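[Archive record]
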Amino acid sequence: MYPGAGVTEVSGINDKGDIVGTALPNPSSSGKGFLLVDDQFTDIQFPGAAGTGATAINNRGVIVGDYFDQQAVAHGFILANNQYTSLDFPGAVSTTVSGINDAGEIVGQYSMTNEPLQSFVYERGQFKTVNIPNTIRSSVYAVNARGDLTGQTFTDRQTQPPYLGNELQIGYLGITKP
C-alpha cells in the first residue's frame, strides 16, 4: 500500500516487476500516480494537474496514464525518460489512456461532445479510432506485442462480451457460466 493512502490502485506491471498505479487519500478524492520499483515508491504527477493516475508501464519503462486539469478535464499522458507529454485525441473533450506495449503502441478512450465513448490506438504519432461493428461504444484496455487489443463493447441495450483482436479484426471471447 502506498504510504498514507486510503486507497491504492495497482493497474500495471511490466516483465521486470515494476508496478504503476494510483494512490488516493480516500475513494472520492483526486489521486497521484506512482511507480513501485524494488519496494521504493516514486510519485508520478503530471505538471500542474489536479490529479494523476498511472495505468500501464512497458518493458522500456515508458509509463502512460491520465491526469485531470484544473477544470476537471481528463487527458492522457506519456512519461518517458522523465519527460511528460500530454496525449489528447484530436477534437475530443476528454482522453484517457489504458495501455502501452513495448513497440510504443498506446490504447485508450476518448469522448466527443454528445457522442458515446470510443477507443483509439496511438502509434507513431497517429491516432486511429477502433471501430467495432454493431456497437455504440467501446473501451480498449490493453495491447500486446502483436498489436492484439482487449476490451469491452456496448450496444444500446447491453454490454457485449469482452473482445480480443486487432485494428482489422475483432473476435468476441465466448464466456460460459459453470
About this structure: The first strand starts at residue 7 and ends at 13. The radius of gyration is 16 Å. Confidence is low (pLDDT under 50) at residues 166-178.
